[in-house]
Amino acid sequence: MLASILQNIINALQWGSFYALIALGYTLVYGVLTLINFAHGDVFMVGAYIAFFVATFFLSTLGLPGWLVLALTIPATMILTSLVGVTLERVAYRPLRRKGANRLYVVITALMCGLILEHANLAILGASRKAFPPLIKETVYTVGGVSFTNLKIGVIVTAVLVFLFLQWVVTKTRVGMAMRAISYDKFAVPLMGIPMDNIIVATFVLGSGFAGLAGLLFAMSYPVLEPYMGALIGWKAFIAAVVGGIGDIRGAFLGGFLLGAVEIMVVAFFPSTFRDLIAFTVLLVILTLKPTGLFGVAKTTKI
Amino acid sequence: MRRAATLFLTLSLGLLLALPAVAADTIRIGFNIPLTGDIPKVGESSKFAAEMLKEDINGAGGLEVGGKKYKLEFIYEDNEAKAESAVTAALKLIEKDEVLAIVGPNSSKQAVPAGQVCDDNGVVMISPWSTNPDTTRDRPWVFRAAFLDPFQGPVAVNFAVKTFNAKTAAVLYDLSNDYSKGLAEIFRDVFEKKMGAGSVVAFESHGTKDQDFSAQLTKIIAAKPDFIFVPDNYNQVALIVPQARKLGYKGEFMGSDAWGSAELMTLCGDDCKGLHFSTHYAAAGAKGATKEFIDRYKAKYGYVPDDVAALTWDATRVVLQGIQNAGKLTGKLRRDRKAIREGIAAIKSFDGITGSMKFDEQGDPVKCAVVVQISQTGKFEFKESVCPE
What we know:
The complex is a heterodimer of chains A (about 300) and B (about 400). Chain A is mainly α and about 300 residues long. Chain A has 10 helices and 4 strands.
């Protein structure tokens, strides 16, 4: 019994890591622009595909060993995926912002961008799934009936490190200060000589870059890639960010782990049929009690 | 400018509508298959097999019906592996394309609702791959080329009990898939009847889009079953089996015919080697017409055809046989469709490449199942054949 609870805690930490990593991207963009970037789940999917192509390129064309491929794939995936995020901002969101369009239209544009990414993938790469090549040798360790692999631990540690890094960027650096300033007052900030567009681009770089990292780790953990893989997990991560208090980095991080834990624990103690029903009822109750989310504070500076 | 555009549109629309009238000497058959969605390889296999058959027959001048040769025209409609799209695809094939008969859908999730549409509209439908009893039940217009889950379930139970010496079993299935859910329930009932109540120690489900099964698998592994029965589509199998191994499970798995895709091994890799599943035919070690089909398919498309390809070939040939049995085609759609239904119903036995089959009064074939083992090189090797009594 104890072993299976511990096992489920590890399962929940791994699964929650992905929600947390994606939720961080939602929360960054929302914090700065009060825009829900619904294309973020699909940016995550694009990240997984980019990782796939980069990794196969290094593996087959250059014939490098697995660990080196991984070391090269991580930065390459993050850079390329952040380019995708920045492109979305440039092509879809910035023109609307310039024209002073209502936030609602930007959100709907984001939904469209997500669909475009999915279907572009389907049209270009076809419907067949891709199998992600194993980059590192996964070793199963069993301690007292609890099994975990080096990859699982790696995923969890990465999620924590990313959170700490973002928390540091937002609270301690000049860019972070500018982000918080924009979030506080969009109209006064340009008057202070802060280059607003650059800061927004930096936000997208951070959010999408880590979505790319999440995509790479996800592809390593669940090595079957398909064009719609980002949609459902993206929505759920968005819900996690809202429950945590969207716009707040700690909120996104904890919300992600909370959702992962609730989902896994429901399956562990109830019939698995009830998973999403119970999981989202729990989240709904949390939001009813605290509509701004766990860390949310109504209408103040966030991030 | 706008008038010109309208004129052009009207003209092209008129041309489109006139097309069926021009093509009088063709037999049009619709394919309601998943070219995108969760199981695209299934649709691809169906399409490739059908194309091969079409080339054969058109190359020989066409299908002879009542002393006249007809060219075949196949229309492939994508049902995206979704139930609602399968219904739309069936309606489009029936009403817009005016096909004489429909082959597919393959998976029961789509075949059960599409079967209702075809039956209501009086159009013959034959599903190559659907094994859920509901597809053909009380539907005189619907046929199939695959065996049924009430037959496949006991095959899996008996094989596992005999080969693995299993006393207990666990099941992991897809809740939103008619095929997976139906087969899981049949398996549970048969296993418990044979091994005693409570011998299915875990009965867990998941959703179609799920990628993480660790919670379900932790529960299953904690129950210590002798083997895990996974009646799931190949894409999910490729996630479930490796995840179970990473949670420390070293025992056996038993699968069902939805495993048998050419893509299973590219997605699953080493973890699936040595596992068993029940299916419609075994490509490795095939003989006669089956071997000939496999060799030609492999030469043409570059991989060994899976069971869906073979079953589509058989299903389409059953339809063509039905058309020939109809005697002649009048060109009147309703009458021809009815004649084809009578023609197929009149087939008493049929020698397909997936084995010989007889049709019972429900339109279901009575045929043998095989159990295959995935070899160390990733081939599906014949292990045992089980025929209905």
